[in-house]
């Protein structure tokens, strides 16, 4: 059985007024259009052409969710749980109201996802950069107290532990002065090979002044995808989409643990419990490659 399905764009603040409209051949929107969901997830099931919603047809049984995503501004830095973590977290929060902004788990499913770029340029932060590279980048910052402390924290322990403890410190609310120093240092930083990264982080800082997520973003790999190129985001991988139009396919879930660049709830302890801080590059999948 074939069904024609549609859905209304979700109006998250980071959405574009032009990208989805351009894809669909219509006039730009008066407000942000961020995501269109094509699935039966209870958070926003797709509309069926002859009336009703897709979940009434499927019984909510689809294991996947497809989305169009159009970002004019950076999304929050985030990570998604494994299936086991999601089940445990959802059970712990069973007594919380479904709309409670402090709730971490909206369902009991994992959310691995793959995004394919549709726009000429799709920018993303994905995974944590090896510390040898990050130290070279930070060497180009002025030696202010906050920058010195960040360098020092990143030198303690093995790489995953140094990154985990540093992210926890940045998001703890006790690192505001250091965050301000690092963000101020972006103005003059100029490390060879990091021109695109620094331009992107400066733009993120301009939109999120004094947000500790800006410094978390500085620890991450910055990627530019072109049409047809894709990245796979496994459970535990820190990421944030920065700008562009793409199509996502993911497990049917709305579980998001945030790590900055957002006014929404950030549960630092839960984030640190599920994030994988092993550094490394995230491979780009290109059309025709196996």
Notes on the protein architecture:
- Helices cover 30% and strands 19% of the residues.
- It contains ten helices and eleven strands.
- Strands 2, 4, 6, 7, 8, 9 and 10 form a seven-stranded antiparallel β-sheet that branches. Strands 1-3 form a two-stranded antiparallel sheet.
- α5 crosses α7.
- It is globular and about 65 Å long.
Main sheet overview: 7 strands, antiparallel
Radius of gyration: 20 Å
Q: What fraction of the residues are assigned to beta strands by DSSP?
A: 15-25%
Helix/strand order, N-terminal first: EHEEHEEHEEHHHHHHEEEEH
Number of helices: 10
Domain Phosphomannose isomerase type I catalytic: 3-131
Family: Belongs to the mannose-6-phosphate isomerase type 1 family.
Organism: Microbacterium suwonense
Keywords: Isomerase, Metal-binding, Zinc
Tags for this model:
single chain; 290 residues; alpha+beta; Jelly Rolls; 2 domains; seven-stranded antiparallel beta sheet; two-stranded antiparallel sheet
Mind sketching the topology for me?
Blueprint: E1 5-6, H1 19-24, E2 35-38, E3 47-48, H2 54-58, E4 64-71, E5 78-79, H3 83-92, E6 113-117, E7 122-128, H4 131-138, H5 145-153, H6 159-171, H7 176-185, H8 195-207, H9 213-218, E8 220-225, E9 230-233, E10 239-251, E11 257-258, H10 268-274
Antiparallel strand pairs: 1-3, 2-4, 4-10, 5-11, 6-9, 6-10, 7-8, 7-10
């Amino acid at each position: 059985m074939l069904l024609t399905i549609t859905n209304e764009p979700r109006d998250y603040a980071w959405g574009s007024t032009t990208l989805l409209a351009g894809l669909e051949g219509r006039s730009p929107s008066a407000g942000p259009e961020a995501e269109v969901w094509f699935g039966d997830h209870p958070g926003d099931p797709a509309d069926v052409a002859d009336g009703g919603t897709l979940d009434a047809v499927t019984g909510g049984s689809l294991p996947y969710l497809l989305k169009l995503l159009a970002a004019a501004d950076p999304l929050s830095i985030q990570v998604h749980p494994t299936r086991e973590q999601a089940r445990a977290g959802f059970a712990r929060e069973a007594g919380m109201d479904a709309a409670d902004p402090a709730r971490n788990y909206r369902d009991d499913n994992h959310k691995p996802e793959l995004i394919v770029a549709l726009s000429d340029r799709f920018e993303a932060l994905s995974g944590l950069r090896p510390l040898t590279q990050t130290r070279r980048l930070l060497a180009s910052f002025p030696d202010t107290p906050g920058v010195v402390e960040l360098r020092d924290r990143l030198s303690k322990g093995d790489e995953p532990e140094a990154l985990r403890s540093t992210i926890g410190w940045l998001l703890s609310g006790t690192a505001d002065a250091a965050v301000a120093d690092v963000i101020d240092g972006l103005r003059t930083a100029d490390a060879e090979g990091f021109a695109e990264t620094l331009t992107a982080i400066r733009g993120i800082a301009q939109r999120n002044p004094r947000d500790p997520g800006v410094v978390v973003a500085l620890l991450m790999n910055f990627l530019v995808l072109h049409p047809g190129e894709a990245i796979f985001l496994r459970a535990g991988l820190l990421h944030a989409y920065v700008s562009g139009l793409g199509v996502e396919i993911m497990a049917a879930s709305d579980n998001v643990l945030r790590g900055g660049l957002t006014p929404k709830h950030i549960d630092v302890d839960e984030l640190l419990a599920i994030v994988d801080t092993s550094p490394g590059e995230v491979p780009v999948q290109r059309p025709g490659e196996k």
